Recover the amino acids of this structure.
């Protein structure tokens, strides 16, 4: 197998593993499930991932990195801090049957029992907060936002988004997506000295 073929096969295995994890959950996903779904031998799965735990960690990281790539594109853009903030809030909002949120919630849960997954989850989770804090700081610098503690504001906004997103993703019809959006705008506006209408 050439190196390029191996990379393509690895990417396909990670995508398949993510699909299986969303369907079965991290705790119930077996290497045999991933191999069967990918149409390959279990030996090939172990060729790429020495253990089941390593497969699950890398699949989780792979899925989350897709979200982070979209976040990075927003942060690196030439848009104003306010425009970036609005895009970040939209990116974070669960929509439909959110595969991304299913993985995040499952990842947080399994992190309680799997130290290596906890390290991956923490590293990726912190990236959201750091990027949000950077956008807030840029908005403070240019006078768009009023906030004495951009890092603290990012943590508080993110904590509310996480809590509401779990409710929206796990408990159907407890809150609506519209309520989620309205409440996040309200919290973010209060943190940054804005009128909630500015976040529409």
């Amino acid at each position: 197998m050439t190196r390029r073929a191996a990379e393509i096969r690895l990417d396909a295995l990670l995508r398949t593993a993510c699909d299986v994890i969303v369907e079965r959950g991290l705790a119930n996903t077996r290497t045999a499930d991933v191999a069967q779904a990918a149409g390959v031998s279990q030996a090939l799965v172990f060729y790429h991932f020495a253990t089941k735990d390593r497969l699950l960690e890398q699949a989780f990281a792979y899925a989350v990195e897709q979200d982070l790539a979209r976040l990075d594109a927003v942060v690196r853009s030439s848009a104003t801090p306010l425009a970036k903030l609005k895009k970040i809030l939209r990116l974070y909002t669960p929509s439909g049957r959110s595969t991304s949120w299913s993985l995040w919630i499952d990842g947080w849960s399994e992190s309680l029992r799997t130290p290596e997954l906890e390290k991956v989850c923490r590293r990726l989770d912190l990236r959201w907060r750091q990027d949000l804090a950077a956008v807030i700081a840029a908005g403070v610098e240019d006078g768009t936002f009023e906030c004495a503690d951009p890092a603290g504001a990012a943590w508080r906004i993110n904590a509310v988004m996480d809590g509401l997103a779990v409710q929206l993703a796990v408990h159907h019809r407890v809150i609506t997506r519209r309520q989620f959006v309205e409440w996040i705008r309200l919290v973010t506006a209060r943190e940054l000295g804005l009128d909630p209408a500015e976040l529409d």
